[in-house]
């Protein structure tokens, strides 16, 4: 049997088929399994905290007649739904791979990040539609109520953001960014309420809600772009891909690397496949090359690697030209 006929579904021989979800991921960020377990509790804490406060916000926004507070309520609703879906998807993401989903369910957290972006875009458009008419006919909100809600908003969102600050997943980073934006938004609401309390400038309220909503939209669209890239299996890190190719070519027996693919399950766990064209004189060199490639790739902390070994004298079966 020639060396190329062994199709290796994993470069690490101790995990022949990479059926174990954490085969490579144990040492990704030096946090091991123990720290990743905390991701669910972090999301759960932040979800219940945010959901409770969002209900208070909608009531408060209605009572104070403030579009700025309603804008924050929409964004907090978006964050609450995203935190809830993130929590659920995280739980599903930890399930073991199956015959139908051989990579497991990690990709679901990416869907959570996409869903979050879509919810926030919809809410932002609604707030803009509510605030625009108020520019021509501004209504003075109840500033005392605004100040009280703003202080509460800073505390609640600040605590939720602190809870998620230790997160490593793309979904946690996206959500943490939204919570920090909400903290800044509440600071702006507090300052605006203070100004309107002493000066008769009711137009500050709709202006603030529009400015804040446009700021959120800009950042959400940017997050949507990075999430969509992962959905379409773009290379998550072009520098990493170039580095892997360069390192593979440093092996003396490797003449060429082609069909090199790097994609990501969730923005954190990456998968690699490659064809190596090699020149070997005997079988022992083949085994030596395998262990060298395994050692070389281990430093990149990839979830799964598939390496096809081809002899220099044979044609690549996947080559279409």
UniProtKB/TrEMBL annotation:
<keyword id="KW-0472">Membrane</keyword>
<protein>
    <submittedName>
        <fullName>Cation diffusion facilitator family transporter</fullName>
    </submittedName>
</protein>
<dbReference type="InterPro" id="IPR036837">
    <property type="entry name" value="Cation_efflux_CTD_sf"/>
</dbReference>
<feature type="domain" description="Cation efflux protein transmembrane">
    <location>
        <begin position="46"/>
        <end position="229"/>
    </location>
</feature>
<dbReference type="InterPro" id="IPR050681">
    <property type="entry name" value="CDF/SLC30A"/>
</dbReference>
<keyword id="KW-0862">Zinc</keyword>
<feature type="domain" description="Cation efflux protein cytoplasmic">
    <location>
        <begin position="236"/>
        <end position="310"/>
    </location>
</feature>
<dbReference type="InterPro" id="IPR027470">
    <property type="entry name" value="Cation_efflux_CTD"/>
</dbReference>
<keyword id="KW-1133">Transmembrane helix</keyword>
<feature type="compositionally biased region" description="Basic residues">
    <location>
        <begin position="1"/>
        <end position="31"/>
    </location>
</feature>
<keyword id="KW-0812">Transmembrane</keyword>
<feature type="transmembrane region" description="Helical">
    <location>
        <begin position="174"/>
        <end position="197"/>
    </location>
</feature>
<comment type="similarity">
    <text>Belongs to the cation diffusion facilitator (CDF) transporter (TC 2.A.4) family. SLC30A subfamily.</text>
</comment>
<dbReference type="GO" id="GO:0005886">
    <property type="term" value="C:plasma membrane"/>
</dbReference>
<feature type="transmembrane region" description="Helical">
    <location>
        <begin position="110"/>
        <end position="129"/>
    </location>
</feature>
<dbReference type="InterPro" id="IPR058533">
    <property type="entry name" value="Cation_efflux_TM"/>
</dbReference>
<feature type="transmembrane region" description="Helical">
    <location>
        <begin position="43"/>
        <end position="63"/>
    </location>
</feature>
<dbReference type="InterPro" id="IPR002524">
    <property type="entry name" value="Cation_efflux"/>
</dbReference>
<feature type="region of interest" description="Disordered">
    <location>
        <begin position="1"/>
        <end position="35"/>
    </location>
</feature>
<dbReference type="InterPro" id="IPR027469">
    <property type="entry name" value="Cation_efflux_TMD_sf"/>
</dbReference>
<dbReference type="Pfam" id="PF01545">
    <property type="entry name" value="Cation_efflux"/>
</dbReference>
<keyword id="KW-0813">Transport</keyword>
<keyword id="KW-0406">Ion transport</keyword>
<dbReference type="Pfam" id="PF16916">
    <property type="entry name" value="ZT_dimer"/>
</dbReference>
<feature type="transmembrane region" description="Helical">
    <location>
        <begin position="141"/>
        <end position="162"/>
    </location>
</feature>
<keyword id="KW-0864">Zinc transport</keyword>
<dbReference type="GO" id="GO:0005385">
    <property type="term" value="F:zinc ion transmembrane transporter activity"/>
</dbReference>
<feature type="transmembrane region" description="Helical">
    <location>
        <begin position="203"/>
        <end position="221"/>
    </location>
</feature>
């Amino acid at each position: 049997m020639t060396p190329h006929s062994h199709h290796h579904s994993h470069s690490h021989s101790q995990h022949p088929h990479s059926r174990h979800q954490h085969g490579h991921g144990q040492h990704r960020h030096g946090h091991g399994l123990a720290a990743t377990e905390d991701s669910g509790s972090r999301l759960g804490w932040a979800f219940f905290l945010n959901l409770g406060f969002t209900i208070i916000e909608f009531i408060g926004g209605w009572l104070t007649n403030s579009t700025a507070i309603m804008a924050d309520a929409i964004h907090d609703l978006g964050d609450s739904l995203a935190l809830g879906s993130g929590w659920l998807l995280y739980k599903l993401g930890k399930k073991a791979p199956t015959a139908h989903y051989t990579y497991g369910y990690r990709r679901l957290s990416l869907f959570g990040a996409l869903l979050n972006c879509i919810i926030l875009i919809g809410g932002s458009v609604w707030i803009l539609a509510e605030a625009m008419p108020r520019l021509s006919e501004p209504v003075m909100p109840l500033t005392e109520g605004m100040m009280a809600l703003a202080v509460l908003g800073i505390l609640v969102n600040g605590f939720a953001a602190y809870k998620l600050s230790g997160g490593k997943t793309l979904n946690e980073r996206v959500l943490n960014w939204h919570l920090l934006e909400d903290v800044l938004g509440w600071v702006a609401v507090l300052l605006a309420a203070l100004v309107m309390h002493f000066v008769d400038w009711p137009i500050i309220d709709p202006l603030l809600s529009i400015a804040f909503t446009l700021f959120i939209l800009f950042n959400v669209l940017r997050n949507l772009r990075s999430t969509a890239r992962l959905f379409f299996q773009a290379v998550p890190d072009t520098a990493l891909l170039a580095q892997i190719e360069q390192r593979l070519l440093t092996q003396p027996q490797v003449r060429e690397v082609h069909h090199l693919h790097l994609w990501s399950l969730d923005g954190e766990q990456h998968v690699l496949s490659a064809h190596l064209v090699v020149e070997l004189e005997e079988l022992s060199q083949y085994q030596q090359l395998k262990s060298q490639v395994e050692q070389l790739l281990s430093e990149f902390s990839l979830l799964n690697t598939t390496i096809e070994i081809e002899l220099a004298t044979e044609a690549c079966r996947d080559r279409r030209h």
